[in-house]
């Protein structure tokens, strides 16, 4: 058992817009849309779903999600892809003071959520 969560999901205001955003923003991290329908989509890596968005209820207040990146280049690619997909910059790629190798980038998604890509490895 690697982590404490199996999967996480939340509702979004505009499903089509959010699905398109996450398809583009998460692709540089090797995370793809695995399945879904007209109201929800499950994303994951290597066939294992771990994150979903849907339009089946109220939208929660702003939340923070951090996606693991294999390396710093993937963090930079996530940030660029998320900006191109309509995200708003909330902290460009760079080292953070959480620990010496904490390299992250932050984007605000279409619903105001703070979405991060992070790598804990040196360059």
Brief sketch in words of this structure:
This protein is of the alpha+beta class. It contains two helices and nine strands, in the order E-H-E-E-E-E-H-E-E-E-E. The chain has a single domain (8-55, 62-119), classed as 2,3-Dihydroxybiphenyl 1,2-Dioxygenase, domain 1 (Roll).
* CATH architectural category: Roll
- The total count of strands amounts to 9
Per the principal axes of the C-alpha atoms, what is the gross shape? globular
Helical segment count: 2
Q: How would a crystallographer describe the biggest sheet?
A: 5 strands, mixed
Helix- and strand-based class? alpha+beta
Mean pLDDT: 95
Report the portion of residues in β strands. 25-35%
| Tally of individual domains | 1
CATH topology: 2,3-Dihydroxybiphenyl 1,2-Dioxygenase, domain 1
Distance between the termini: 27 Å
CATH-defined superfamily:
2,3-Dihydroxybiphenyl 1,2-Dioxygenase, domain 1
Name the helicity range: 10-25%
Query: In terms of per-residue confidence, which ranges show pLDDT below 50 for 5 or more consecutive residues?
Result: none
**Measured on Cα atoms, how large is the radius of gyration?**
14 Å
Which H/E pattern describes the elements?
Answer: EHEEEEHEEEE
What is the CATH top level name? Alpha Beta
């Amino acid at each position: 058992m690697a982590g404490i969560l199996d999967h996480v999901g939340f509702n979004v205001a505009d499903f089509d817009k959010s699905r398109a955003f996450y398809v583009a923003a998460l692709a540089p991290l090797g995370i793809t849309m695995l399945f879904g329908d007209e109201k929800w989509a499950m994303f994951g890596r290597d066939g294992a779903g771990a994150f979903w968005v849907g339009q089946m209820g109220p939208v929660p207040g702003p939340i923070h999600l951090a996606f693991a990146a294999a390396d710093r280049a993937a963090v930079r690619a996530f940030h660029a892809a998320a900006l191109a997909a309509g995200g708003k910059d909330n902290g460009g790629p760079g080292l953070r003071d959480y620990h010496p190798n904490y390299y992250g980038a932050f984007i605000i998604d279409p619903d105001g959520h703070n979405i991060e890509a992070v790598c804990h490895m040196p360059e």
